[in-house]
Amino acid sequence: MAFGPLMETTRFHDLLCEGRLSRRQAHRVMASFGVGTAVVSTMGGGALAETTDDHPVFFTWVGYDAPEFMVHYIAKYGSEPIYTFFADEDEAFAKMRAGFNPHVTYPCGPSLKLWNDAGLLAPIDTSLLSNWPDVFEVFKNAPNSVVDGERLYVPEDWGQTSFIVRTDLAPEYADPANQTWKALWDEKYAGRISISDYSYEAFAIAALTLGLDPWNMSESERIQCEDALREQIPLNRLYTTSHTEQAQALASGELVIATGTNGLLSELNEQAQQTDMEFAFATPIEGALTWHCGLCIHPAAIEDGFYERSHDIIDSFISPEAGAYEISNWYYGHSNARSYDGFDEEFLRSIGQSKNVEEFLEGTAFQQTMNEPEVLALRWEELKAGF
To answer: How many CB atoms lie within 10 A of CB 81?
Structure first.
């Protein structure tokens, strides 16, 4: 069963309540809606957690309610925690600042400092996490994970933002030696390119093509990136954060080059079935953008008596079973080294991953908060509008 990014909401609701959508399909469709916060206990199907006072509230991205992530928690407590969803971290931050107090949250690296400065993160006791010893050191040491000697963040998944190229239509980019972010400026493919619609990624990509440090740009360097993006914007066919929409456009040939994460590959593989399409997840010579996301405990977990159960949620998410599910279904990487047991290295390389995670990410620059992110967001919208 396949759905476009604009499925009518009534149709989606009916299918979900009838149990005719898999969680993965629901994840794709809801993401394409840009869905906002929702309490999953309002959805039908019986497999989701009841809203009771017996379980902590887990405030997370759409799709992370898949039971494969919560196997150990369910085994221990008999059912899942209470899920609420956010569409993006800006929305989550605003809601918590306004007084919403979940018990476990799921931010990504660039948000950690902002959320901690706002008093939204509580210390995590790793002695309560049975899977902690198997977490890769490179993620344990991610920026802003530990502040003043206290761990505030446990990494769970990771991936890379690169670009996917239809190598049957643009064969010159099949060779990794020719894979460069400058492909997004290739006028030969004008009107068949899609750069990231996230301001921080667009500016980071521009910075990398100019040989700049994306995370520590001066104002003059930012202006250089603006000039570069002003040249790139007319070459774009579309701006979207929907993997489904991008995959459909690549599969049809409407797009030849598109910025995306490993998750786009899982969508594209579905679209590519029974076609002659050939594509590659590029390894740009300037470096891909590496992201990571994970779990944090909100101070309300301590106040409400859910501190230990909050750790059980985290421990379940960083289990090798959860990691194997995520790698095989979403093509994201995982923080637990044992998650990679049983996966073929050739397959992992094809989706921008590797069993040798520490070596694969050696020298990587994790995405971080950029200087003056509000200014970048404003300038990105102005550039797209032609200014």
So the answer is: 25
What tokens does 30 get? Answer: 């809801």
Structural Rg of the chain based on CA atoms: 21
Give me the amino acid identity at 116. Answer: N
> Strand 57-61 and strand 82-86: pairing?
parallel
- What is the distance, to the nearest Å, from the Cα of residue 46 to the centroid of all Cα atoms in its chain? 27
Answer yes or no: are the C-beta atoms of 93 and 46 closer than 8 Å: no
Whole-prediction pTM value?
0.75
More confident residue, 146 or 290: 146
Range 255-261 average pLDDT: 94
Burial of 115 (0-12, 13-18, 19+ CB in 10 A): buried
pLDDT, tens digit, for every residue of 324-370? 999 999 989 999 999 999 999 988 988 878 889 988 887 566 788 78
Q: And the tokens for 189?
A: 């493919």
d(CA 165, CA 184) in angstroms, rounded, equals 10
Report the distance separating Cα 318 and Cα 19, nearest Å: 28
Helix or strand (DSSP H, E) at 248: helix 243-252
> What is the bridge-based pairing of β-strands 193-194 and 279-281?
unpaired
Q: Alpha helices, DSSP H only, in 78-117? A: 89-97, 112-117
Q: What is the 3-state secondary structure (H, E, C) of 13-69?
A: HHHHHCCCCCHHHHHHHHHHHCCCCCEHHHCCCCCCCCCCCCCCEEEEECCCCCHHH
Domains recognised in the chain with CATH numbers = 9-157+291-353 (3.40.190.10), 159-289+366-384 (3.40.190.10)
Give yes or no for a contact between 144 and 293, defined as CB atoms under 8 angstroms apart.
no
